[in-house]
Each structure stands twice: as C-alpha cells, then as structure tokens.
Amino acid sequence: MTDVLNGASPADETVTFASGITSDLAGAEFANNNTDGRNGQIVIPLGLNTARPLAFDVLWAALVNGSPSDVELELRYAVLTPGDTLDGSVSSTLLADVTTVGASDADVLKRSEFTLYIADAVPGDLLVLSFFRDASGGNPDDTLAGSVVVVNQELRGSFWH
Asked: How far apart are CA 90 and CA 64, in angstroms?
C-alpha cells in the first residue's frame, strides 16, 4: 500500500501507532504534533454486497481546545488480491474528514463517517485500512492544539440474503 505521504520518503515523517490508551475512556489518544494511527485488515467474506459501499464510522472527542480549530481524520484503504506486488505501487484511496471544534467542544463526542467503495473486491480479497490523524506541523488542515481520543471505530457493510 502506498504510504500516507503520497510517495514521500518514510524518513520525512514519523508515524506513531496510537499508544496513549487512557484509563477513563475506552480509546486511544491521537496526540498533537504527531501522526498517529491504527491499521487493520479484513478478508472480504462470502455474501458481502460489494456493489454497495462500506461505512467506516468513528466516534472521537477533542481533549483540549481553545479558539475554533480543525481536526483532520484520514482513512486510506486498498483491496489486495493474490499476485499484487507490495512495493508501494498498489492503488489506494485516501479519504479525509475535517471537523471544526470550538472551545465548548472539548470532551464532546463527535462522529466522522467515511464511505468506502470496493465494487471490484471478491470474497477472499484483503481489505487493508489505515486510519490516522496527521497533526504534524506540516499539515495545515489540522490546527487543533490538543489531542483527540478515538472512542470507537466500526466498519459496516451490506450482505446478500
């Protein structure tokens, strides 16, 4: 799968898998000034209707906030099939959701939804997901001076009856 920097050298960015598990919320902290994320994959099951899009829902909250600012959550996904060459050339799709939060939004549960189109996928293919927040100094789309706690992630699809 291509890296999240669209071809930039991995040495140009540090990606930290979220490790700030808090004791008061069932979630992982995507810290400020970092690129934090989670990866996952599922094997496309028999009966999944790939003609209809999948929905990737995320419940999250901004921990610290002052003046209105933006939180950018991103999802990159790809469908891998036997015979693919994993040299960074596999086609992937990047989706982004930018949410503006104000001072009164600190610790308020928010929802972001991403729509995944995988019409060419067949049972047995591998759907690879990379969900992350790029809060590095080089990303002008994420201006929140604080962390985000991801409380829940859910991937939903439709099945044939």
From this structure: 37
CA angle 2, 4, 70 (to 5 degrees): 155
Whether 123 maps to a domain, the answer reads yes
Residue 2 placed within a domain = no
Over residues 109-129, mean pLDDT:
95
Tell me how many domains the chain contains. 1
pLDDT digits (tens, 9 = 90+) for 11-54: 445 555 555 555 445 567 888 888 888 888 999 999 999 999 99
Whole-model pTM: value is: 0.81
Separation CA 148–CA 143 (nearest Å): 12
- The single-letter code of the amino acid at 144 is L
Instruction: Report d(CA 129, CA 109) in Å as an integer.
Output: 23
| Mean pLDDT, residues 149-158 | 92
Alpha carbon distance 15, 133 (integer Å): 10
Amino acid at 156: R
**What residues have CB less than 8 Å from 12, skipping those under 6 apart?**
5
* Residue matched to tokens 């930018």: 98
**CATH number, residue 127:** 2.60.120
Domain that holds residue 140: 10-156
